[in-house]
Structures are given as structure tokens and as C-alpha cells.
Request: fold
Amino acid sequence: MIDTKPFGMRELIARVRALLRRVERVEAMVEADRARAEAQLVFGALTLEPEGYRATLNGHELDLTRTEFELLHLLMRNPGRAFSRDYLLDAVWGETYVVGDRSVDNAVLRLRRKLGSLADAIETVWGVGYRLSTRPVGKHPEGACPDGGGPGMSPHRLDRLA
Reply:
């Protein structure tokens, strides 16, 4: 008789318990990120006032959606920290999602457009997700961009455009 199980019952239980521990840790991290202080944040010419749900760039108020604001708030509280798309969905959207969902990428693209000269401060971490630069950046010479091609562009898309 052929055993169709890839591993024993004890190993299955151990794997499930390990997954549950990881889920609990991620949930605790998300909750800690949501509960962070509501102090004003400044990143170069960008100012974020969480209590008033207001963001200004060079003194001009930005028209951000709730999602864009929450995404920017999370990134500004954690400059230099890379966030996976899954983590951003949990922390910002706070709901379940469909695998392959491009919501995070679309929100980042819209946010970059609204940030103008600071768009390049939101860096793409290939294979991971996104992070906010540890220091404000402006336009790069000759159209060069630290994440491979400007807001929302991947090096692969640039190759196809050339």
C-alpha cells in the first residue's frame, strides 16, 4: 500500500502551530503600527498631520484618499523599512484580499504622482514591496531613478519601451 501523505500527523500539527505563531506575530506588528503616536511627521518639504488627516507638500495641501494617507503615514513612520505588499494590505486596507490583487501597486502609483518631486522617495524593493527613503530625494539627473525608472515603472517595462 502506498502512503499518500507527504509527512506524519505530528509534523502536520507542528507546521500548523508554526504558521499560527507567525500569523500572531504579524497581527501584533500590524496592531503596533496602527497604534503608533499621532504626532506630526516631516519628510523634507512633506508634512503629515495624522490627527487632522492633512498632508502638505511645500505648504500646499495634498488631496489624498484615506488609503493614500494611511499608506503615506505608515511609510513616514518607518523610513528605510521595506514593507511587503501583503503586509501593506493588512496594515493599510485591513481586510482580506484576492491573490494577485494590484491594489498596493496602484495606490503607490497614485501617491507617487501626488508627491511630485518627492515621488522617488517611495522606493520599490524588488521581490518585496516598498519603502520610504531614509532621506528626501528630488528629481534625479537625466531621468535616472533609484528604483529603476520613475514612479510605477519597472526595469522590465523600461526595456520594452526602449
User: Anything to note?
Assistant: Strands lie at 41-43, 46-49, 54-57, 60-61, 83-84, 122-125, 129-132.
